[in-house]
Amino acid sequence: MTAGLKTIIALSFVLAIGFLLVILSSALWKNYLPLLVVATYVIAPVPNWLCGRAASHDDFMESSGSAVVDFGKFLTGFFVVMGIALPALLAHTGDIVYQAMVMSIVGGLLIYGTIITFTMFFQEEQDF
């Protein structure tokens, strides 16, 4: 799939809306704890990327290094779930209001969805 200028513009628009929702969830109620979600969604793709690079790609065996890749996927899933569970936990304990929780979760999902979509569109194909 070829990614063009329209794809970049659409992804940047959705990313901006996601960041806007997370920032507004903090600023409207003057409680900046929901900004912790941004850190989890920025860190989330890093284990997947690092473990994908660290796995040894052997031309003769297809299953070499799959444990490292699986561990990276596990850590990425952990960070994504933590990005959803952290605002829910903060709202449950009364540190943030429920409206801030909803805005933070929706904004975080938009941010992470944009990161996933970006990597799908701009992934390099390897020719052997």
From TrEMBL:
It is found in: Membrane. The chain crosses the membrane at residues 7-26, 32-50, 71-90, 96-122. Its main location: membrane. InterPro entries: Vps55/LEPROT. The keyword Transmembrane applies. GO terms for biological process: late endosome to vacuole transport via multivesicular body sorting pathway. Belongs to the OB-RGRP/VPS55 family. This is Vacuolar protein sorting 55. It comes from Eremomyces bilateralis CBS 781.70. The lineage of its organism: Eukaryota, Fungi, Dikarya, Ascomycota, Pezizomycotina.
